[in-house]
Amino acid sequence: MDKKKNFVIIGGGACGPKAAARARRLDANANITMVQDEVYTSYAACGLPYFISGLVKSGNELMVRNAEAFKRISNVDVLIHTRADSIDRAAHQVHITNLLDGQTSALQYDKLVLATGANPIIPPIKGIDLQGVHVLKKIPDAEEIIALMTASVTHKAVIVGAGLIGMEMTESLVSKGFEVTIIEALDRLLAAVVDEEITDLIARHVKGKGVTLKLGQRIVGFEGEKGHVQRAVTDKESIEADVVIFAIGIRPNSKLAKEAGLEIGTFGDIVVDQHLRTNDPDIYAGGDCVANVNFITGQKVFVPLGSTANKQGHVIAANMTGGDQIWPGIVSTACVKIFDFNVGRTGLGEKEAVSAGYDVVTGLIPGLDLPEYYPGSKEVIIKLIVDAGTHRILGGQGTGSGEVIKRIDVLATGITMGMTVETLANLDLAYAPPYNSSLDILHHLANLVLNKMAGRIQGLKPKEVKEKLDKNGDFTLLDVRSRGEFKAARIESPQTRLLPQSRLRQEMQDLPKDKEIVMMCHRGVRAYQAACTLKGAGMKDVKFMEGSLACWCDDVVGEPPL
Amino acid sequence: MDKKKNFVIIGGGACGPKAAARARRLDANANITMVQDEVYTSYAACGLPYFISGLVKSGNELMVRNAEAFKRISNVDVLIHTRADSIDRAAHQVHITNLLDGQTSALQYDKLVLATGANPIIPPIKGIDLQGVHVLKKIPDAEEIIALMTASVTHKAVIVGAGLIGMEMTESLVSKGFEVTIIEALDRLLAAVVDEEITDLIARHVKGKGVTLKLGQRIVGFEGEKGHVQRAVTDKESIEADVVIFAIGIRPNSKLAKEAGLEIGTFGDIVVDQHLRTNDPDIYAGGDCVANVNFITGQKVFVPLGSTANKQGHVIAANMTGGDQIWPGIVSTACVKIFDFNVGRTGLGEKEAVSAGYDVVTGLIPGLDLPEYYPGSKEVIIKLIVDAGTHRILGGQGTGSGEVIKRIDVLATGITMGMTVETLANLDLAYAPPYNSSLDILHHLANLVLNKMAGRIQGLKPKEVKEKLDKNGDFTLLDVRSRGEFKAARIESPQTRLLPQSRLRQEMQDLPKDKEIVMMCHRGVRAYQAACTLKGAGMKDVKFMEGSLACWCDDVVGEPPL
Questions:
Q1: Fewer CB atoms near the end CB (10 Å): N or C, chain B?
Q2: Do A186 and A110 reside in the same domain of the chain?
């Protein structure tokens, strides 16, 4: 019989526990030790915003398995309250300190797993240490934030950073009655997650929930009294708040690895190969402390997610017990719930795709997630990003109160497999009225992009139409909705003209033949059809506004006198 | 300028209207005529069960566009109340009859589209013409069924045929207070849709809603008084009912095509090539009157769905206007809502896959569609079917009250693209607590199948365990749940033994080393882990029951004295 192997795993969040439990299933005899610097092990940190909002009643609900259960079920020794201080690669040892009694010792390893996670970025700005300014990373953070919220006098909160955590925390705080202001240095929300068209829709939704957005403002510091924060100070103004969530981003926790001489990447990540092995063949790394290859571009990206961490733990367990499993990389799928809006993305965003050198064609369609006649249908807005060279789908993203995430998962699967837009157009997705329309919005998107690529139609984004209007361009914005719809809400401009689709064929001869016409309607369907009609009648410069009024995030005039 | 083309389309359901509207967008000048034998055009026949249940308030809501709107918007002439009598291929003419005034005439075509749909199968059995016995195909059928239900005295209904329509109508009738009995000649529900494991779960659910199942009974006829049905008679018994929905299946309506000498397939379908062209190059066909190639097996299958019909209309429009678009075929995706259960399937079922010559491995996992800590999570049960030779995913199906259909759509996409189970295991699906667990049930399924293929674990289906128990086999059914769970509900047998997972490592030496042990728990997770533990301890004949109690459809003893 082989000598018993010693497996040591540093980090007890997601990747570590997964690696430990599976290593036991693959090797019944090894000594497996997991080192964790806090008391909690194997917990869903992603659930913390919902613990803070009260949807989840206690931090313990988020914990999958505690140290005692790990021993009992998987025969894994979990050293809680234990810090890993250094790695002696030559001696194959990890030096550790028990944080409760200060005792130090060393763990011998045959294979070592670094699942050290990531740390919130906390710049040394003025007042960052004031009470009331908090990051959210672990269960104790959430408990402290709950205490801060309970003690709040003003019920005014500031979120610094409009990324995934910032947006989740916005919802949590609003649900608890807080007046929330978001400070974001970039000029839009979720800039690293979704494109501008989607961001603008989310911003409109968030503002509708009473949230104040301070975009393009840089946080400078915090001011307070008696050690407690009272104001967040930006480069432009000062905002009152006695609860501040600081969420500008996280960075791989690669200190141990770096000090041990392991290779560190541009994100501060521990560099690993396709087996999730570091440049030391006896040391693996996974979870938030590593970067990933986006396998559309082959470029490394830092997208720290619990889902990836869990899968990587699984792969590491196989490889450290003598198996041969490949970690393929990611397509950068992400999603977040923001009030009533579901938000998702996968693959490349439009700008990323352009930067990566693709000849990009996009499509933007709002629509209902169920047949209009079926009760409970809700709006979804999806954007598709395609490479005109290969017709391959590069990315997709969307938002709305309807079923966005199913479409994102379909696109993530297709992108992973190199699907073309032709295949998407005829994809055999599940159809029955309680679940979908006979054609999914993805089918419509694929057809729209195919029509654009074939030169059959030219689309303009709402933002592009807005720019044309702002420049007072010489074109007609032809609204083909009904008179009633037009009356209820319309884009007011000198260029705007109403000609309902029902009268288009009779009256189109009155339209200027040699002038640019941009068609619009409610969601873009009628505008598209009408544009085809005008093109068929020989008009040359006809476009349609993709998404039309449903995706229009600028001013609209309602109930005008007609 | 080219001479104006004449396009004639026979059939105004789904494929026909789609072809007509797009043909207009692609050819502004053609004369386009659509022939429809009823007054309704372009309507969602799939919504009829929801019109009957009252969820949809009127038949008109199901109609996308009437004849007048077709003319106005798409400049398509729709001849309603018009029957196509014959096709003169040599003369390129369709002979038609106006059903209101009996006038006959002929339409000249350059390209002809047959979108003649399918007809319900109505065998000439005794009493089939009695009032109260009805099929469901068109809006007038639904209106007549509603009238029958309103006039019902007994509020007892019989559904003949447990396919998709039969099951949808079961829900509609129960929702209207009817006592429903389903008569099905095969020994299970939805036999053409899902495998036995899924069927059994659905049957349990349906019975729980008060529906009576008469499986393995063949309908022989109907008996009544004063011309109205009062009893359905099977080969075994007679069942009282004054409303009968006859839904044993549909058959392509290919009479016109056949009489015109076009090639007809084994399903009675109009044979078409990849361009949806019949053996006459000027005649296309699409929708329910054609069969499709399942592109996993390359075999022809008859899966008539509105989704496929719409996509085919789109393809036909391109090809008949001079384009070149390929119809790739289907992966036989289907879904249906049955009370609180969502049901979906895609690809091949297990038996189909075995028949097609694959070396089949399956996995069955019940689980929650959201993290357990997140409110509102619901149960889903998914089965995965994989080819052990290539590791390609062949099929997937599932049911449960949770989000089944998203998983089916992901699998449909993966199967279309030839995805392997390795890729599925690491697929970058969207993760955030409001949408999913960090690992999707599909990831777990992929890992289970990989572990089974690698010989790391052996799974048994609940039915296989039941058979072993029925044979009084010499094995131990080891339940590793807690004592409390065991007390609440358990499989009672001489083989059953309780050993909670928390005590397994301490007490496993007491288990027989040389006897077969089948592990079970609630959903199979602990049983799987425990089986790995026992195998690790050197026990040779250890298996686990996939799906365990959650998928057990036979007797369970609750609250026994312990």
A1: N
A2: no
The closest CB to that of B430, out of A26, A405, A435, belongs to A405
The amino acid at B32: I
The residue ranges of chain B whose pLDDT is under 70 are 1-2, 559-562
Q: Which domain holds residue A281?
A: 6-118+251-320
Q: Give strand pairing partners of B343.
A: B336
Digit-coded pLDDT (tens) for A117-152? 999 999 999 999 999 999 999 999 999 999 999 999
Is the same domain home to B102 and B38? Answer: yes
Q: How confident is the model at residue A547 (pLDDT cuts 50, 70, 90)?
A: very high
Please name the helix (run of DSSP H) or strand (run of DSSP E) that holds residue A544, with its range, or none: strand A542-545
Q: Are B304 and B286 in contact (CB under 8 A)?
A: no
| CA–CA separation, B175 and A302 (whole Å) | 51
Residue among A439, A370, A362, A359 nearest A402 (CA): A370
**Where among B248, B264, B284 does a domain terminate?**
B248
Inform me whether the pLDDT recorded for A385 exceeds 70: yes
Judge if pTM exceeds 0.80: yes
Structural domain includes residue B226:
yes
Which of A397, A409, A499, A508 should we substitute to test contact with B (largest number of B Cβ atoms within 10 Å)? A409
| pLDDT score of A560 | 43
Chain A residue at shortest CA distance from B533: A25
* Catalytic-role residue among A46, A521, A532, A551: A46
A-chain residues near B338 (CB < 8 A): none
Asked if A48 and A136 count as a contact pair (C-beta separation under 8 A), the reply is yes
Residues B261, B288, single domain; the answer is yes
- Within this chain, do residues B302 and B159 fall inside the same structural domain, yes or no? no
- Of B248, B279, B310, which residue sits at a domain end? B248
Q: Hey, which residues 149-208 in chain A have their CB within 8 Å of chain B?
A: 164, 168
Query: Within the 199-258 window of chain A, which residues sit less than 8 Å (CB to CB) from chain B?
Result: none
Tens digits of per-residue pLDDT, A417-475? 999 999 999 999 999 999 999 999 999 999 999 999 999 999 999 999 999 999 998 99
Number of domains in chain B: 4
B290 by Cβ neighbours in 10 Å (0-12 / 13-18 / 19+) ranks as: buried
Is A289 one of the catalytic residues? no
CATH number at residue A499: 3.40.250.10
Instruction: Enumerate the residues of chain A whose CB falls inside 8 A of the CB of residue B505.
Output: 72-73, 75
pLDDT digits (tens, 9 = 90+) for B399-441: 999 999 999 999 999 999 999 999 999 999 999 999 999 999 9
Cβ pairs bridging A and B (under 8 Å): 261
Contacts of A355 (CB under 8 A, 6+ apart): none
Distance CA A88, CA A94 (A): 6
B148, B244: one domain: yes
Q: Over pLDDT 70: what percentage of chain A?
A: 99
pLDDT of residue B59: 84
